[in-house]
Amino acid sequence: AKAAGKGCFRFFAPEMHEAARERQLMESDLRVALEKGQLRVVYQPQVDASSEEVTGFEALIRWDHPEHGPVSPAVFIPLAEEIRLIDEIGEWVLRTACAEAANWPPHISVAVNLSPIQFKSPALTSTVRMVLGDTGLPAKRLELEITEGVFLSNDDHVHDMIRALKDIGIKLALDDFGTGYSSLSYLQRVPFDKIKIDRSFVNGASDPESRNAALIRAMVGLASDLKMRTIAEGVETPEELQLVRDLGCPLVQGYIFGKPMPAEEALELAKKGAAT
Ligand code: C2E
Ligand code: CA
Ligand code: CA
Ligand code: CA
């Protein structure tokens, strides 16, 4: 803090101004990126743990900034949420992914991430219905991934929307399971089809010292008792794959079977069927 005279203190931190300015630039760049088609969607295979057949793909957004290069969605999605650009970006991802998935063999599904902020828009369900109609993708081949964050606000409204989404016929997945606070009550109340076991449980789980194996086993058992399927995220090594298989987890996603890839490659893989 620097004395600015007359008993008034001005807090001056140049690096803070710099960060704020950068952010502002990124905000306007993100709007331009959406308008000018600088965003892309890549697809990561989801694989049956025993047969190693591809069952679906998760759609993940990418932004190649014309000057700064790739910007991580972990950085720009929160920004898009803050400036409320997420509804438009989310609809664009949904439309792109559904249009792409409509070209895949009919047993292959697509999973699209939804931000909790998108649940604040009453138009969400009609958007999903419209996109399915426009792209011709059957509802049962679309899976929407949500996180516990969805349930932090206005419970009844969120549950109504989830009901309405399920009524369309889409599938619902709980993302990043085990990383939040009170997942268990959501499992009881929300009709999830799938639970995604977070990467933090999977990585290093094959280490005999790790307690993660016990946690994964418990999550798989709980989900299966509730008639939900589990998918292990972030499986990278043969040891991790063997372990989640041994623990009874039916589905796997991770670098071991493929990094997120462009639509053309996903289509090839989908037609080929097996991930290995
Ligand atoms: P997420 O939904 O949990 O997505 C999984 C992330 O893990 C992806 O990162 C994926 O590339 C990465 N991943 C997959 N397999 C492996 C692996 O074996 N090892 C490691 N180390 N990482 C793996 P990505 O694409 O950078 O996305 C980060 C997060 O950004 C996503 O986490 C999601 O929360 C958000 N995101 C991405 N695309 C979208 C989108 O279209 N809409 C929304 N709302 N959020 C998105
Ligand atoms: Ca996800
Ligand atoms: Ca996840
Ligand atoms: Ca995550």
TrEMBL record:
Signal peptide: none
Coiled coil stretches, renumbered: none
Domain EAL: 23-274
Name listed for the protein in its UniProt record: EAL domain-containing protein
Organism annotation: Sphingomonas brevis
Section covered of the full-length record: 298 to 573 of 688
